[in-house]
Amino acid sequence: MDQGSPSSAVRKGIEDRDQVVIRFAGDSGDGMQLTGDQFTRTTALMGNDIATFPDFPAEIRAPAGTLPGVSAFQLRFSSFDIHTPGDAPDVLVAMNPAALKVHLKELKKDGILILNTASFSALDLKKAKYEVDPRTDGTLAGWRLIEVDLEARTREALAETELDARSKDRCKNMYALGILYWMFHRDMAPTERAMAEKFKKKPDVVAANLMAMKAGYDYAETTEVFQTSYRVPPAHLPKGTYRNIMGNQALCLGLVAGAQRAGLELFLGSYPITPASDILHQLSTYKHLGVVTFQAEDEIAAVGAAIGASYAGSLGLTSTSGPGLALKSEAIGLAVMAELPLVVIDVQRAGPSTGMPTKTQQADLLQAMYGRNGESPVAVIAASTPADAFMVGFEAVRIAVQFMTPVIVLSDGYIANGSEPWLLPDTQALPTFAVEFAAPQSAGTKFEPYKRNPKTLARPWAKPGTPGLMHRIGGLEKQDVTGNISYDAENHQHMVDTRAQKVANIAFAVEPAVTLGEDHGDLLVLGWGSTRGAITSAVLQLQKDGHKVSACFLRWLNPLPQNLGDLLKRFRHVLLPELNKGQLCMMLRSRYLVDVESYSKVDGLPFKSHEITARLTECLASLKNKGGR
Amino acid sequence: MTTAARPVMQKKDYKSDQEIRWCPGCGDYAILNAVQSAFAKLGKQLHETVIISGIGCSSRFPYYMETYGFHTIHGRAPTIATGVKIANPALDVWVVTGDGDAMSIGGNHFIHALRRNVGLKVLMFNNRIYGLTKGQFSPTSEQGKVTKSSPLGSVDYPFHPIALALGAGATFIARGIDVFLPHLEEVITKVSSHTGTAFCEIYQNCNIFNDGAYKGITEKELRDDRVLYLEHGKPLLFGKDKDKGIAFDANFQPHIVTGAELSRAFVWDETAASPAPAMALANMSETDFPVPVGVFRRREMPAFETGIRDQITAAKQKKSQSLHELLRQGEIWDVG
């Protein structure tokens, strides 16, 4: 490049890329989530495939400029089908020294580092625990550093506006966004529309934000600091209508769709908890669809009200995270005993106890499976990607009402807050499973609340208010058919067996396990929940390289697919990556007596695809050493 | 459904075919009797009535009523009942609970149901003991009570359930006693007619683990002097000849007035906006004063479920959206 050119005549290079990973990192108050979200929406609209990973602290505003206060948003966009938000970023935008310190080590070698130099005072450095300014001691060697004083530039850009200095400074993230929009040939119009909508009542704020964004764009275009821009052509996604969706959103939509197809009113009882609260927020905006939301006094009241609503003929739903699921255990047991439909959502986070509320984990599986007193089986289903959460919510409703059983839906923080383009389903094509409540009976006929459907073993759903069906249910053991209290030994054995068989019967009503790749071979990678993306990327790569590796993803964890036992036995080795200490692994080993190997990780972060690839490569090497069977 | 079209009900219609498993002589029988009798007079239809209970002796109640019934888990009956009432406000929803169930393990749900004013009728059988677990002190047991779990006497101070309900903002609060059947039946009738949460404490004798807990109030020769019947619009008088009254000083401290002072007896207004007089009665020392029974408070306030349903009705009128449109909300784009 010609370093001497006047800025108005800078000649800029353009490079084509098939994928880029960007990470925005700054203080919790710097608007990194909003910045990332805007880039995501724009990029989705421009036809790229995209996956995102917001990573933020549990504190709303940890002390400004400190390491615990750093909030980040990573996104990966591409011209091909992708399954994860990427491993190491190509571009890191660091808004302060703390963000630099936390995230620099993950930036790719030779990656682009856009550093906000406005906050590099001695105090800023001290808060970030830098003894020496990292710009001066070689810390940043090996990366392509671009220094911009975002605060000064933003204030300059907004000099003419009426806003106070503080409000102007708050637009600096938009200045950075403008720079990135230039670097990656993004269209500014979607953000213009979004900001106008978001700050509808504050036109001066909208104007300032957009002015800052355009100034950033122009700055990148005209100064010599930025030499190259990058084009990432659209991906060839399957034909259809798309929207960008986060896991919690998709889950809500799936539940609403399921309740509509069942012909039921959806009733959510919930108590705020990270990272599940957005489900309560979103469903509370669906009053026009007849969705009832009840913010209860605690987790137990939330599930209690949902059970009451189901008993009265609505679809009872409760949403929570691990600690809340623990509190709901006894009530879920009641729903098992009363054989009422109930959907319980657990958006898992890192535990135990309060743990790390904004970090992800899959360690509630055994709690969902077995965390109740007595023999208390429930159906368990897991969402694997943000978009997948739609069908998972839908299926949870279908099974809950068809089998008169609680269904626990496992999601996690990674799915809940991550996003991806979603190919919208044809709503006409969604199955219908209209609930038939028990019909009124004339006086003199005794209603039998536990007279079961011979095929599913589900009992009738008799709504209070229906003439002739008066009956009593409850937590005490009941005689089958009549529903009378019974402490009879044989009856209890029969009822325990029947409740278990009913849940086992769900396997006949759900799809069998399928493999990605051949259904037999050397190595099978099993996955459940949010590990799907990383496993898919790794397995596709290895398959391309000629390895005999297959993958299988379990949506239903209780019951397990009917064909799973056979499938496991058709592979020489089975590896199971999980963000826990091997919980599904334990279930499968005991159930099928297959030597499933656990690949466990519990650091609060999702698997990276290179981690899976590395582990699979080791497995393949060791299988090769062992020779054929 | 019009009143005229409703079948006439008899007390026996409410009796279920289940064998009653309370101890012989338990106060619960009397309460069951009073409820069935009141329900018959009110013409309650079996299929429109739902009785929800928690855990404890009292919570077996639903099994003995030929209505819809749900015997749930310890302390949580108000939560389940809240869900039922919101899901179908047309149902007549009753909660039957005890002092352990409502005041201890379910204390949180109890106060929040009252705060919200959910349309539930809550009958709390207060026997001041844990009966089903065989005799430990409860949150309403008097301090110093010697039980299996408090051999040297309990150290706990008790709750006054009526005061707790007042503090939680309940819109209807009453008290009855198991052995005063006609009065109890009358109180239950008033409970039934209230729109929001109606709370009724019922003094109930546990003849096995706390026998005679209310003997000093209910004994025939004592009761005239020991019981104060609250009557709306009438002065607070008690005694066989109504020759004693309760008056309050400027700080709402109660004292007994007699003779020439009797005209100073406080005129009871159960609909009073201020909870102060009711609170004063609720906290009156049981040893120094008669025990008030009847309606402490009755205020008309919209019920919780009505508020919820009104929002939904209004939202539906304002906006209609198909599933197809819902999924396509926000920014969408087409590929291919």
| The CATH architecture of the largest domain in chain A | 3-Layer(aba) Sandwich
> Total strand count of chain A, please?
23
Give the biggest beta sheet of chain A.
7 strands, mixed
The tally of helices of chain A reads 20
What general outline of chain B do the C-alpha atoms trace? globular
Q: Rg of chain A, please?
A: 27 Å
CATH superfamily of the largest domain in chain A: Thiamin diphosphate (ThDP)-binding fold, Pyr/PP domains
Topology:
The complex is a heterodimer of chains A (629) and B (336).
Chain A: E1 13-16, E2 19-27, H1 32-45, E3 49-55, E4 70-78, E5 91-94, H2 97-103, E6 112-116, H3 122-127, E7 144-148, H4 150-157, H5 165-169, H6 172-183, H7 189-198, H8 203-222, E8 228-231, E9 240-246, H9 247-262, E10 266-270, H10 277-283, E11 292-295, H11 299-311, E12 315-320, H12 322-338, E13 342-348, H13 365-370, E14 379-382, H14 388-403, E15 406-412, H15 413-417, E16 419-423, E17 472-474, H16 489-504, E18 515-516, E19 521-528, H17 532-544, E20 549-554, E21 556-558, H18 564-569, E22 571-578, H19 583-592, E23 597-600, H20 609-626
Parallel strand pairs in A: 1-8, 2-5, 5-6, 6-7, 10-11, 10-12, 12-13, 13-15, 14-15, 19-20, 19-22, 22-23
Antiparallel strand pairs in A: 2-4, 3-4, 9-16, 14-21, 18-20
Helix pairs in contact in A: 1-6, 1-7, 4-6, 6-8, 7-8, 9-10, 9-14, 11-12, 17-20
Chain B: H1 27-42, E1 49-53, E2 68-71, H2 77-87, E3 92-98, H3 99-105, H4 107-116, E4 120-126, H5 161-167, E5 172-177, H6 181-193, E6 198-203, H7 215-218, H8 220-226, E7 227-230, E8 237-238, E9 244-248, E10 254-258, H9 276-282, E11 291-298, H10 304-318, H11 323-327, E12 332-335
Parallel strand pairs in B: 1-2, 1-3, 3-4, 4-6, 5-6, 7-11
Antiparallel strand pairs in B: 5-11, 8-9, 9-10
Helix pairs in contact in B: 1-6, 2-10, 3-4
